[in-house]
Each structure stands twice: as structure tokens, then as C-alpha cells.
Amino acid sequence: MAKHQYKIRNWSEYNKSLVKRGSLTLWFDEDSIERWHHLRLTGKRGKPQQYSDIAIVCMLTLKAVFKLPLRGTQGLVASLIALLGLPIQAANYTTVCRRQKKLLVPLQNKKLQSILHAVFDSTGLKIFGEGEWKVRQHGYSKRRTWRKLHLGVDEATGEIVARVMTTNDVGDGEILSDLLEQIEAPLSQVSADGAYDSFENYDLLEKRGAKITIPPRENAKIRQHGNNKSPPLARDEVVRAVRKLGRVQWKKQNGYHRRSLAETTMFRFKQIFGDTLHAILFESQAVEAFIKCNVLNKITSLGMPQSYVVA
Predict the structure, then answer these.
(1) Which pLDDT score is estimated for 285?
(2) Across residues 20-36, what is the average pLDDT?
(3) 154 in helix, strand or coil?
(4) Which of 82, 114, 131, 195 is the most buried (most CB within 10 A)?
(5) What pairs with residue 163 in β-bridges?
């Protein structure tokens, strides 16, 4: 199939959003300053926490944006506080490292009334192992390890609406229920690749009232045949439609190719932040990835291209 050529219809607005992404305008709002040194009593013996979660999240966000190590992050925040003359202090890098694994990072995005089309997929983020040159020259070794970041993306806006971090041995289809729990808005359509093809996932999506666009596996069998008096199963109906129309035509009629926007989001994630996690503990790695998702949503909200196919 020949590749389509695309043009951007909102180039002027999109160009301005690209310029805004490089802005170095930083400020601390009054609420953050007031709660920066919030002393939260934990009910445990010992000295209470000196810095609030807001302070730790702020420093980790700057760390992700500017790709700094923990020590460099402490220096950056300390210099900003000094330049602005604020009555607060930057947390020590050891404090940030220790507190990172226990942080709760809510997903920041636009609260939509409904989502017309949600797409799901996952990507791998390296934690240690060989680089690409070594793999090409000598192959993989047993020490190559990564984490999987599972994402749900709003097809219309490109924003991340759900995210889950797992180890590399967890299948994509096993995480769909956890992703759906994070989406409160009604869903009109859900698209995902064949890794999500299971009767359990079809049941979950049927309860949400969403149109299901998940291609069945090549060897998919019909569980409940037509002479059964029970209502037809959604997955069986998809298998019948694929057999009747053909896989290519079925995908085209159901807008399945919009699922590639999830892969586009992952490509943008890795282009901006890299494909490696720097934290050591799994909990800290999840916080690092979730903070990067929030930053990516902020960048997305500045403006995205609206493209169309050139005839």
C-alpha cells in the first residue's frame, strides 16, 4: 500500500505551541509556597517530614523536564528559590530519592465529559542492560531488563487518560481492567491490538457500553454458535465480521488504524524523555514514568497538529 502524504491545517497555531514548549518561564504559586514546608505528622516516632509531597513532585518534575540527576535537580531548585527570593528551601537530593518511592502522582489531564475513542497500547522502558550498539554487535544477554508502561490515550486530543507500570513479564491484555478503572468518562469506542483479544476484556468493554475494535487472533474460534438461544457474544460477532469482510476491510470500516495514535504518544514520550528509567526501585520507576506522563499531557495541551490526507 502506498503511503499517504499529510498536511497540517493549523500550522500557525501549532507553530506557536512549539515555540511555547521552549519557554523557561517558571513561577511558584502562593499555595505551593505556603505548603512547601508543610509538617505532616505521620503518627510514627521520630521527626516529622520537613517537605510536603508538593515540594518533592515539583523537584521531580523539573528533574524530568531538564533531564537532570538528583544532585543537579537540588542545585537547580535552590538557584530558582534564591533568584525569586522565596522563603523556602530546596529539599536535599537524598530526601527526594527516599520520598520518591512513596509518592502518589495523580494523572493530570483535561476532565472530559466523554471520550469518543480511546486507544490502548504499551511500550518498554529500559532500566539496565546493553545499548543498541552492543546488541547489534554481540546480541542480547540475560541482563537486559525493562519495565512496561501501559497507556490509554484519547484519540481526539492525544492526551494520556490512563497509565499503569508493570514488569516486563505482564501481558498487555491483563492490564486493561486497571486502565479502564482510571477512566471515569463514558467511552464510545475502544481500540487496541490483538494482545487485548480475550473474552474477559470484551466483557469489561461491553459493560462500559463501548464499541470494541480489537482484531481477533488469526486462529480465533467462535465460542457460541448461531443456533444458541443466548444473546450473541461480542467477540464472536467480531470474528464473524472479520471472516466476512476480511481483516483489512474490517479495520478500515471500524477506524482501527486510529489505534496508531497510542504508538505516536509513546514515540513522543521517548523522544522527549528518552527510553530509559533512572530510578532503581520499581516504585520509584513508576513515579518517574507517571510524572513524565503528566509533563507530556501539559505539552500536548499547548497545541497539537491537525493533519489531513493530501489527495
Answers:
(1) 95
(2) 84
(3) strand
(4) 195
(5) 151
Give me the residue spans of the domains in the chain. 24-100, 118-264
Report the chain's terminal Cα–Cα distance, integer Å. Answer: 15
Angle in degrees, CA 264, 265, 266, rounded to 5: 90
Spatial contact of 233 and 199, defined as CB atoms under 8 Å apart: yes
| pLDDT tens readout for residues 62-78 | 999 999 999 999 999 99
Amino acid in position 12: S
Torsion of CA 130, 288, 60, 267, to 10 degrees: 70
Q: Are 192 and 118 in contact (CB under 8 A)?
A: no
**Which of 41 and 251 is assigned the larger pLDDT?**
251
Q: How far apart are CA 84 and CA 28, in angstroms?
A: 9
Q: Which residues pair with 166 in a beta bridge?
A: 148
pLDDT of residue 214: 93
* Secondary structure (3-state) at 22: coil
Contact 34, 90 (CB under 8 A): no
Contact 213/189 with Cβ under 8 angstroms? yes
Q: Could you tell me the CA-to-CA distances from 274 to 47, 65, 209, 266 in Å, in that order? A: 37, 11, 36, 10
Contact 13, 294 (CB under 8 A): no
Q: Spell out the residues 6+ positions from residue 200 whose beta carbon is closer than 8 angstroms to its own.
A: 173, 177
Higher pLDDT, 108 or 144: 108
79 CB neighbour count, 10 Å cutoff: 11
| Res 22: pLDDT | 81
Longest CA–CA separation in the chain, Å: 77
Nearest 5°: the CA angle 223, 229, 234 is 45
Per-residue pLDDT tens digits for 208-228:
999 999 999 888 888 887 677
- 8 Å CB contact between 40 and 52: yes
Helix (H, G, I), strand (E, B) or coil at 116: coil
Residue 134's pLDDT band (cuts 50, 70, 90): low
The model's pTM: 0.86
